[in-house]
Amino acid sequence: MKVVGLTGGIGSGKTTVANFFNELGVPVYIADIEAKKLMNESPELRTKISALFGIRAYVNDLLDRKFISSEVFFDKAKLEALNKIVHPAVRADFELWKQHQKSVYVIYETAILFEQGGNRNCDLTILVTASRESRVERLHKRDKSTLEEIEARMSHQWPDSKKRELADFVIENEQLEETLKKVQEIHQILLETA
Fold first, then answer.
1. CA separation (Å) from 147 to 94, 162, 188?
2. Which pLDDT value is given to residue 157?
3. How crowded is the C-beta side of 169, counted as CA atoms within 13 Å?
4. Superfamily of domain 1-27+101-194
5. How many CB atoms lie under 10 A from the CB of residue 174?
6. What is the CA radius of gyration of the chain?
7. How far apart are CA 68 and CA 89, in angstroms?
8. What is the pLDDT along the chain (194 residues), one digit of tens a residue?
9. Is the separation of the CB atoms in 98 and 4 below 8 Å?
10. What residue ranges do the domains of the chain occupy?
11. Confidence at residue 144, expressed as pLDDT on a 0 to 100 scale
12. Of 159, 156, 175, 179, which is closest to residue 167 (Cα–Cα)?
């Protein structure tokens, strides 16, 4: 079974693309969603995160994502420390999940695939891109984020130009019909080359 890494900058539309693949019957593992579950449910992760961020890390027994975000997106050292806690746990969880899938390939969707070297664990990679204007507009609409918050989050990710050099496929996600068509094309290629 092939592992296809799906990535893109924040606001590029990775989840939309992941959903299109899922609608075609492809199992999709969304690392961000699974990471949030693990951070709330794993006693080991809870202990490590609380040690890193203090008692404010969890409120009413749930991770205080807004507090954590405010801490890490302006402090590179804390972000790296958090990633070192969470990413190995997510990787192990993905490997367990993959064992239960019965398909030609699975999608592993994550925002920082190349930045963390996760592409080395993938057979192929797909990069989702969108113009900076589209990404800012989507993030503002989705999260009510300020421009400063959006730019801080974007600054922790590589530019698309750098990721393009490593990606096997690129999907320009500006118009949904075109995006869906490209997903269907890539799906056919992946089925034919399995």
1. 33, 23, 38
2. 82
3. 23
4. P-loop containing nucleotide triphosphate hydrolases (3.40.50.300)
5. 12
6. 17
7. 18
8. 999 999 998 899 999 999 999 999 999 999 999 999 999 999 999 999 999 999 999 999 999 999 998 898 778 899 899 999 999 999 999 999 999 999 999 999 998 899 888 999 999 999 999 998 898 888 878 877 788 877 877 877 889 999 999 999 999 999 999 999 999 999 999 999 87
9. no
10. 1-27+101-194, 33-89
11. 77
12. 159
Q: 């290629």: which residue's tokens?
A: 189
Evaluated on CA atoms 38, 117, 105, 1, the torsion sign reads negative
Estimate the crossing angle of helix 132-143 against helix 147-155, to 10 degrees. 120
Read off the tokens for 22: 């899922």
Which of 33, 23, 9 minimizes the C-alpha distance to 128?
A: 9
Contact 4, 105 (CB under 8 A): yes
| Six token digits for residue 45 | 């992760």
Instruction: Give the global pTM.
Output: 0.89
As a whole number of angstroms, the distance between CA 177 and CA 68 comes to 36
- Kindly state the tokens that stand for 41: 């449910």
Nearest to residue 101, comparing CAs of 173, 191, 189, 25? Answer: 25
Rounded distance, CA 132 to CA 9, Å?
10
What pLDDT is attached to residue 148? 81
Closest Cα partner for 42 from 34, 31, 52, 30? 34
